[in-house]
Amino acid sequence: MSGVRVPQGPPFEPDSVSHRTERSGGVNPGAVVALVIAATLWGTTGTAASFFPEDVRPIAVGAATMGIGGMLLLLFARRRALAVLRHRAQRRWVALGALGVVVYPLAFYSGMELAGVAVGNVVALGSGPVFAALLEWLLERRPLSRRWVIATAFALLGIAALATSRAILGDGASEEGRPGDAPVLGIAVALLAGLAYALYTYASGRAMATGGTSRGVMAAMFGLGGALLLPVLLVTGAPLLQSPATVGIAGYLVLGPMLLAYLLFGLGVRELRSSHVTTITLLEPVVATVLAVLVVGERLAPLGWGGVVLILVGLSVLVSARRTPLSSERL
Hints:
The protein has 13 helices and no strands.
């Protein structure tokens, strides 16, 4: 993933072997599929959370999914995680990424509470590719490709259309589609979530570039971040246990959008640049919007459907890359 050549260690298990398709200009289709499935699972979180009672706070949902899910990831791949943590270079990147893991759910759910779910969601996700590209440029002096700029422009235009459309929904929209009480502060907090997401995406890719397995890096990073989130869950999470229904919803959010999705996310990060990863995962708000219309009962104006189309166009531009020299794609 990194443009910097990093000395490779001894052979690792199969999921640690990186073909680095993008170094020759192409995009690994398997990695793209893994990220699309992960983004689809993430897109179900808003609809699932809409079935929680009102006394379940968004910050508790975030702490539960990342906290419990992170510990499950660590348990699932504990040996590989320990191997990563014993490696000094990988350990540094894991610690940096864990900071992003802690900040992301707290900022993400707080941003949605302050600015509204639609606006907070799309600002956080839409800013991710921009922050990821800035990290690559600042830390690696890596130029941006024309293809990435075009794809991200389409995707961000689409997300802006979605945010505008869902924010101006009138009667019949759910509360989740309306702005919150402090939109300016909420947008600022959502931008912090976007930076945190880009940070742990970039850090996980760099840890893998030093030879860490995808499962090991993700388990170590989310396990460490999850452990730091458990105190937040202890303070805010009691309403999650009030009924079998709330436990079931929380269980789905932990096992699906967290555990399975982030295992797939690790595979994608292993093969693709962080700026490409964050662009592909912009599919999440498309899924979230469609489910909000079909399941929750929100209405979507034509502007919103136009945003869905723009995001899909951006994704198609990115994944249609051919194996051409990177130098011909750079700005």
